[in-house]
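Pasting as-is:
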Amino acid sequence: MKILHLILRLGLGLLLLTFGFNKFFWFLADFDFTGFPEAEHLFKALRYSGQSPTGKGYLMDAVGITEIVVGVLLILKKWVPFALVMLVPISINLVLFHLFVNLPNMAPAALVLLVNGYLMYVHRGAYRPLFSSE
């Protein structure tokens, strides 16, 4: 099982690094939003919002930085439970975006959420103090 956990942790870390750096350099092709104008509109609004000359706002930068930090922490095996908690809002938002406006591209988002949840379960002992009655 330790090898499975290692593969999942490193795989999630590399995936997050890839998508995190993509938020700054846009080297990956965007998802195909054909037939889903709401998804395309929302994605472009998030990507190109703001007053800067490039049209970029702060939101994609914040998500990208968070993905990069979490990815590095997972790969280096530093503060893994903390990194997984940092990833929860991004994981949930990814799934909700695809669930409500772009269902055909749901697989990568669901994978991130499932792996995040599984790794949190593996490290559940680290979260026990959060739920103690003291």
